[in-house]
Amino acid sequence: MASQSSSAPLALLCLVLTFMIIDSHAGVISVYWGQNVNEGSLADACNSGNYAIVNIAFLSVFGNNQAPTINLAGHCDPSSNGCTGLSNDIRACQGQGIKVMLSIGGASGSYFLSSADDARQVANYLWNNFLGGQSSSRPLGDAILDGIDFDIEGGTPQHWDELASALSGFSQQRKVYLTAAPQCPFPDAWLGGALNTGLFDYVWVQFYNNDCQYSGNADNLNKAWNQWTTIQATQIFLGLPAAPEAAGSGYIPPDVLQSQVLPSIKASPKYGGVMLWSRQYDNGYSSTIKPSV
After folding, report:
1. Catalytic annotation, residues
2. What is the dihedral of CA 63, 156, 61, 36, to 10 degrees?
3. Which residues form the signal peptide (predicted)?
4. What pLDDT sits at residue 25?
């Protein structure tokens, strides 16, 4: 009896340690905000308690001597300095420990880097107008964003690596987080070179609208996931649509995600969590999956 009673605390300790190890692979949810006026405010998104990272989308025009333009789809009018009030929301989010990024690019933007010098000029613009630098024309006001998200889905694949390097250089003054949203066919056609720099903190791979998405089983998804976790990045996220109508294909019902997908991908030490497109479509998806992420 004495040996049994002494082994009980040991078994309990092992159980606690097991849960601690499992919990160490717990991830967070990242979401895109800014592309539908009906999705609520940025503060609303952060106050939901569901997200650890919010990507403001998009700076959709930049590079090649174009005047940089941010498009927040009716939330505010940047042409009349109408978006500067977002600084209060940004600071409120950051006060909750939420990172707020500016996403550049998008599926329908006009962006193009014509040279290494062009990339450096864009980096300087981003630093001075959204990050830790100084400018009299900061579109989102004086709040300092945490970093830049690369959602590059067009143009050419050249010079994104140089943009990443130039932005990373500013981290000597203040940390600039770099994130990216490549398509899941590996390597990404536009961002492959940039991701090879090894400078990216978080990479949320779009596992939708392509042939490595979940389609009744997780075989293709797991194969692509294992490729992506080989890149030099701090954490890899599973990018998903938050509702069937959020993408042409690739939606995974919460119960399927929790039972068939997350258990295998969470085994990777690079697992960071789930990225959702987008706040507009997230009508309960994030709150349902959060305990399992």
Report:
1. 153
2. -150
3. 1-26
4. 67
Domain locations in the chain? 28-289
Residue 23 has pLDDT above 50, yes or no: no
Taking residues 39-46, what's their average pLDDT?
Answer: 98
DSSP state of 35: S
Task: Give residues with Cβ within 8 angstroms of 218, minimum separation 6.
Answer: 260, 261, 264
Asked: is 28-289 a CATH 3.20.20.80 domain? The reply is yes
What does the alpha-carbon distance between residue 175 and residue 177 come to, in Å, rounded to a whole number?
Answer: 6
Tell me how far apart the alpha carbons of residues 151 and 179 are, in angstroms, rounded to a whole number: 9
Residue 5 pLDDT exceeds 50: no
Torsion over CA of 177, 53, 43 and 258, rounded to 10 degrees? 170
More confident residue, 19 or 61: 61
Local structure of residue 67 (DSSP, 8 states): P
Tokens of 11: 């078994």
Query: pLDDT tens, 170-200?
Result: 999 999 999 999 999 999 999 999 999 999 9
User: How many CA atoms lie within 13 Å of 74's alpha carbon, on the beta-carbon side?
Assistant: 7
Q: What average pLDDT does the segment 48-72 reach? A: 97
